[in-house]
Specification:
- This protein is of the alpha/beta class.
- The protein folds into three domains: about 240 residues, Aminohydrolase, N-terminal nucleophile (Ntn) domain (Glutamine Phosphoribosylpyrophosphate, subunit 1, domain 1, 4-Layer Sandwich); about 200 residues, Rossmann fold, CATH 3.40.50; about 140 residues, 3-Layer(aba) Sandwich (Rossmann fold), CATH 3.40.50.10490.
- Helices cover about 35% and strands about 20% of the residues.
- It contains 20 helices and 26 strands.
- The protein has an eight-stranded antiparallel beta sheet, with helices on one face. A six-stranded antiparallel beta sheet has the order 5-6-7-8-12-13, covered by helices on one side.
- α1 packs antiparallel against α2 and α13 runs antiparallel to α14.
- The termini are close together.
- The structure holds 2-deoxy-2-amino glucitol-6-phosphate (AGP).
- 2-deoxy-2-amino glucitol-6-phosphate (AGP) binds next to α9.
């Protein structure tokens, strides 16, 4: 949550900061601000609530930064303190000489604030962050001329998480950054340097990136020989290597689409193909997963798998559980990452923990990973963002290869997560018990999925018509069975997230144990009802809803004649095997949620109160 950026160089500082910040807006968009050191060596700080476009207007009305060379900026997802201009970052010290942008939470801020107030510091905001800049000021007074020292000594007093960028008018040629629990990267350009929460921010400017680790301090400046220095908290130099990002700038633009979310939904035939590319070995009925870092013997010895994740990734994890249990016959537990670390998960010899995260930065998931590691588990990370913290801290993993996902509501990452889990399940199964012909049959079906998703996308206009019809409804129920129960959860989550309509996902058979009481003529019920071994059972559930006047929308490839008389609307999906059907069936649910939200005139890429990457617990 929250995005931070820093820039040093000869470019237009304000323009570059705003442009980079805009690409981080999915991390939070309650308010935004920037601090630039001007030619008179003064800090110019501009802030505004709402979107970065508001800030842009303000800056270009009364501030030109052509001759400035250094600045930091922030886009906020509020934790401590309301959404106000005063609470927006960057925050400054009492003399307006030091400015700081922060992503994370300072947990002991109350105690520190009292101490600082006693020492005469005056606070302008209700945030936890502001204590840090005053602490830096306090240390800086003692050892003037050493911003790095002041930052390190201040951080030693702080409990919590941070990714920070700090500038000071007494040292107007450097940015000091630090990380603990919130992501931070440095971009190395031609005579210019960047600091940012993630690589999306700086992609148009440079592809050369250095990933900063927890408890590392960096000093960046534009001079050629001294661009980046990294230290630990004991002032020891840490050597770093430069990674080259291979994502294209086009991947982070909307192209011909009205929103990122729609683009990402429509990208799914391609993104699923990319996830499969080079991994399917049909002749062996098997799968190549180069990044797992496990020997075949180790894989055969896995006796239990625990999957942990949050939100949409957790939904993919449930399907992963079903796939691994069915194909590889290994017991699998699934747990919300936020619950996992606060109970006492039993991890024993031979257990593997699979951690799923699009961003690779979700705080709950990262902490679950660390707890599992402390207990001795081998970690497989399934992530999309290359070089993300979860990817780096896992023992091995599978990259989703979905390309950048910018829309806050996850779509193409979900389908690629399920595909990756299917590959993992088949890989393990083939090393254990699955015969060649079975592996071959499953993989043939898996490689047909992109075309089947494309078929669903061809029906987008028909789905839009259904969405328009239901756009004014205030409650929805999503029901599915077996492999499509998680698809029902995901469909409901998509609707809640972007259209603010209350929606519940439920196993269809559970409906009669409670939710059936909700059903009347005002309750649309989306049934995910593919023609599989549970089809007749779900038809019975459809009849139960119909008998109570519920309005039924069926996502199905079943025999229309069988259910026609009970359903209001029908979304036809292509046939696949039961195990892979949620990969296809979720797509119309994404579109349904999308068009309902658009019909309500909502900003689907940046739904209220949410952020793409939740880096606070
Ligand atoms: C999905 O639409 C949500 N934005 C959210 O539930 C998300 O899946 C969750 O926060 C986990 O994110 P991650 O995959 O990046 O870890």
């Amino acid at each position: 949550m929250c995005g931070i950026v820093g820039y040093i160089g000869k470019g237009n500082v304000a323009e570059i900061l705003l442009d980079s910040l805009q690409r981080l807006e999915y991390r939070g968009y309650d308010s935004a601000g920037l601090a630039i050191i001007n030619q008179k060596n003064e800090l110019v700080v501009k802030k505004d609530v709402g979107r970065i476009s508001n800030l842009r207007n303000e800056i270009f009305q009364d501030f030109q930064s052509h001759s400035c060379t250094i600045g930091i900026a922030h886009t906020r997802w509020a934790t401590h303190g309301g959404v106000t201009k005063a609470n927006s970052h960057p925050h400054c010290d009492c003399k307006n000489k030091i400015a700081l942008a922060h992503n994370g939470i300072i947990e002991n801020y109350r105690v520190l604030k009292e101490l600082l107030i006693e020492k005469g510091h005056v606070f302008q905001s209700e945030t936890d962050t502001e204590v840090l800049v005053h602490l830096i000021e306090e240390v800086y007074k003692e050892k003037k001329g050493n911003l790095q020292f002041a930052v390190v000594e201040a951080l030693k007093l702080v409990e919590g998480t941070y990714g920070i960028a700090v500038v000071c008018t007494d040292e107007p040629y450097k940015i000091v950054g630090a990380r603990n629990g919130s992501p931070l990267i440095v971009g190395i350009g031609e005579g210019e340097m960047f600091l940012a929460s993630d690589v999306n921010a700086i992609m148009p400017y440079t592809k050369n990136v250095v990933y900063i680790e927890d408890r590392e301090i960096i000093v960046i400046q534009a001079e050629k020989d001294d661009q980046l220095k990294t230290y630990d908290l004991n002032y020891e130099r840490v050597s770093k290597s430069v990674s080259v990002i291979d994502w294209d700038v086009d991947a982070i633009s909307k192209g011909k689409y009205e929103t990122f979310m729609l683009k990402e939904i429509f990208e799914q035939p391609d993104s699923v193909s990319t996830a499969l590319r080079g991994r399917v070995v049909l002749s062996e009925g098997s799968v190549k997963l180069g990044g797992l870092n496990m020997t075949e013997v180790q894989v055969r010895q896995i006796n239990k798998i625990i999957i942990t994740a949050c939100g949409t990734s957790w939904h993919a994890g449930i399907i992963g559980k079903y796939l691994i249990e069915r194909f590889a016959e290994i017991p699998v537990e699934i747990d919300y990452a936020s619950e996992f670390r606060y109970r006492n998960p039993i991890i024993q010899e031979g257990n593997v923990v699979v951690v799923i995260s699009q961003s690779g930065e979700t705080a709950d998931t990262l902490e679950a990973l660390r707890e599992a590691k402390r207990k001795g588990a081998k970690i497989i990370g399934i992530t999309n963002v290359i070089g993300s913290t979860i990817a780096r801290e896992s023992d091995g993993g599978i990259y989703l290869h979905a390309g950048p996902e910018i829309g806050v509501a996850s779509t193409k990452a979900f389908t690629n997560q399920v595909v990756s889990l299917a590959l993992l399940a088949i890989y393990i199964a083939r090393l254990k018990n699955m015969p060649l012909y079975e592996g071959e049959k499953l993989l043939k079906e898996l490689i047909s999925i992109p075309d089947k998703i494309a078929e669903v996308l061809n029906h987008a206009e028909a789905i839009k018509e259904i969405a328009v019809k239901y756009a004014k409804v205030s409650n929805f129920l999503y029901l599915g069975r077996g492999f499509n129960y998680p698809a029902a959860l995901e469909g409901a989550l998509k609707l809640k997230e972007i259209s603010y309509v209350h929606a519940e996902g439920y196993p269809a058979a559970e409906m009669k144990h409670g939710p059936i009481a909700l059903i009347d003529e005002n309750m649309p019920v989306v049934f995910i009802a593919p023609k599989d071994q549970l089809y007749e059972k779900i038809v019975s559930n459809i009849r139960e809803v119909h008998a109570r006047n519920g309005k039924i929308i069926a996502v199905t490839n079943g025999d229309a004649a069988n259910i026609n008389e009970f359903i209001e609307d029908y979304i036809l999906v292509p046939q696949t095997i039961e195990e892979f059907s949620p990969i296809i069936n979720v797509v119309p649910l994404q579109l349904l949620a999308y068009y309902i939200a658009r019909e309500k005139g909502l900003d689907v890429d940046k739904p209220r109160n949410l952020a793409k990457s939740v880096t606070v617990e």
